Amino acid sequence: MITVTNLALLAFMAITAWAIARTLNLFVATMLAGIYSLLIATVFVLLDAVDVAFTEAAVGAGITTVLFLGALLLTDRHAKPHKHRFGTYGPMLLVVLLGAALVYTTLDPLMPHFGDAGAPAQGRLAPEFLADSVRQVGRDGPTATHIPNVVTTTLASYRGFDTLGEVVVIFTAGVGVLALLGGGAIGAGAGGRRRRSARKDGGTVSGRGSTTDGADA
Amino acid sequence: MIEHVVLRVIARLLAPFIVLFALYVQFHGDFGPGGGFQAGVIFASAFILFALIYGIEHARQIAPPAVARAAIGLGVLLYAGTGVAGMLLGGKYLDYSVLAHDAGHGQHYGILIVEFGVGVTVAAVMITVFFTFAGRRGVLEEREEAVLPPDGDEER
Amino acid sequence: MWQTFLGLYNYWIVILLMMAGFYIVMSRHNLVKKLIGLNIFQSAVFLFYISVGKVRGGTAPIVEEGITSYSNPLPHVLILTAIVVGVATVSLGLALVVRLKEAYGTIEEDEINEMDAAG
């Protein structure tokens, strides 16, 4: 049953990706990307990655779609029909060749099959994490504290440095968006301070806009 | 979308429950699926839903942008500060075992605090990014008004 | 034969999705479309990691009495953080696209290049 569902869901994902590549309507592409995220979240549940599925459903299908819609509102709803720089079939040929090469590598007899418990990836670290999380998390012998969710213990404790780095990346991205689009003011109607900053750098933006208008005409 | 009665009422009803669910996901992450990353996104989605229905100005009064921006840094500081606290108590950086009287409890506390820091930063970044995108048009309009001479207002 | 197909099917779909994302990034000039393509490429990598971590007969890595076989939690941890970092970087990319639109009046890459070439 799981196998059949897996086959079907992955096939749906491939179809959705194809549809995204085809459409010129960016609104449709965004919505299809949301569907794609929901499909991949379902596949993650099937593959036992419940935490990842949870994140993908909230982030991919929720926030990402809303952000894309917000960006479409500020830009265009439609893409222009594409002109091909390298001939109609150039990129397609390259992609097919690369894909064929990758498929050829999976045919190697040493390639561990999907779900193989003896695969190298299932080697030393994973059993250790699982055993440690049951017994206790720490260093001085077994204690009563159980943290059953191994993903949480690994995320926050064993790989604490890594997660700290990821949080800093998110922080940096947030600051970057503010720097690019925030307008340099705090709050919507923050009177004088906002006016001053608007006067200071507002001229360059509208100046740019008028020159490009001239280039268009 | 404030003129749709159904949307308006449902959004107002749903928002507190989404926040509650986010808190559940945040603090139940040790026992079931969940944790700071998911909880932060769910928390932010409550505000985004509210902003979509009631308008960005209304949502800004509930989640002031200055607070959200401060929270971006606070979450990272909370995470990094937990590591420093471990160092001050005699352990290594981000070693939670020294935070309580025994290692198991210390780890539990450490994981909870760190996950909370992650949740705060993720929620604040998502809220800020959404407000920034949604409020971009207002920023541009204000700039144009500020650049135009005082008598240029009639032309627009 | 059928066994081989089932054992490698996930990887093949990963390759297909990855190539679809790569194709969109290469061949489409619309910048928003390129970001969606990048998203597809990215989630193909996520799917690959999670597929590698799956153990047949295992269950989700949340420890319970009486269960002996779990899937590998390590890829889950890596991908969990990568998804959220992914949305943060996508939002940064979208912010850049919005600024490009404001500066050039278009989000088609070839038109922006032409404008730059024209000076």
Key features?
heterotrimer; A: 217 residues; mainly alpha; 0% strand; disordered C terminus; C: 119 residues; Helix Hairpins
Task: Give a quick summary of the entry.
The complex is a heterotrimer of chains A (217), B (156) and C (119). Chain A is mostly helical.
Q: How would you describe what is shown here?
A:
The complex is a heterotrimer of chains A (217), B (156) and C (119). By secondary structure, chain A is an all-alpha fold. Chain A is 70% helix and 0% strand. Chain B has 156 residues and is mostly helical. Chain B has helices at 5-27, 36-54, 56-62, 65-88, 103-134, 136-147. Chain C has one domain (2-52, 69-118): Helix Hairpins. Chain C is 76% helix and 0% strand. In chain C, α1 (2-27) packs antiparallel against α2 and α2 packs antiparallel against α3 (73-104). The termini of chain C are far apart. Chains in contact: A-B, A-C, B-C. At the A-C interface, α1, α2, α3, α4 and α5 of A face α1, α2, α3 and α4 of C.
Rg over C-alpha atoms of chain C, rounded to the nearest angstrom:
20 Å
Q: What low-confidence regions of chain A span 5 or more consecutive residues with pLDDT below 50? A: 137-144, 186-217
State the share of residues found in helices of chain A, binned by percent. Answer: over 70%
Low-pLDDT runs of 5+ residues of chain C are: none
Report mean pLDDT of chain A, rounded to a whole number: 78
Proportion of helical residues of chain C:
over 70%
Q: Kindly identify the CATH topology of chain C.
A: Helix Hairpins
Mean pLDDT across residues of chain C: 89
The chain pair with the largest interface is:
A-C, 98 and 90 residues
Largest sheet of chain A: none
Helix/sheet category of chain A: mainly alpha
What's the end-to-end separation of chain C, in Å?
Answer: 60 Å
- The secondary-structure class of chain C comes to mainly alpha
What distance lies between the first and last C-alpha atoms of chain A, to the nearest angstrom?
61 Å
Number of strands of chain C: 0
Question: How would you spell out the order of helices and strands of chain C?
Answer: HHHH
Basic shape of chain A: globular
What overall geometry of chain C do the principal axes of the alpha carbons give?
A: elongated
Portion in beta strands of chain C: under 5%
